[in-house]
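Hey Z.,

So I finally got round to the iron/sulfur cluster thing we talked about over coffee. Here's the setup:
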Amino acid sequence: MSELLPISLVAEWVYCRRGAWLAHAAGAFQANEFTVDGELLHARVHSGGGGWERGRRQWRRVPVGSRRLGVVGYADLVEEGERGLVVVEYKRGPVREREGDRVQVALQALCLAEMTGRPVPEARIYYAGSRRRVVVPITADLEAKARAAVQGLREDLADPRPPSGRPGPRCAGCSHQGACLVAADGALRGFRWREWVE
Ligand code: SF4
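And the result:
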């Protein structure tokens, strides 16, 4: 059986393949203001325990995994919905369209459905900066993307060299900048030494 991959790392791979490789293969994770903010948000969510909310049962920090999918992780919150179970993921910052977030909740939902035998037809992502929950239907298309991302990550991790990366706006908040050097390389290419010294 191949190694179980963290669901959060699959989400990171969707965001940046190089960053996921560095985080896993080289142990390059370094906290920054954004990751610390996210950790604090999750600590607040997980400290609440389980119970009932508006007549619905809830469970917090639920371990989820599937040997068939080859992934493992935690759902921040699981609650009973009208059509089955619902996973809720908490994110820092405002509402944003990020494929990695959708893949993350899709994998949590697939694991939970397999573990419990109950349907998990949709997930929610709560964006703390906007105080809004966004509904994510677990469609066949999203499920296929999630499975492909697991496979893609597995293939990248089997390669001893990191995938190439391109500098872009996403690099600004990246916790792997120190090890990645893509952003530094881009800055170096644009640097005009003569203009600077003359
Ligand atoms: S600095 Fe940019 S290219 Fe490098 S790992 Fe982070 S997001 Fe990816």
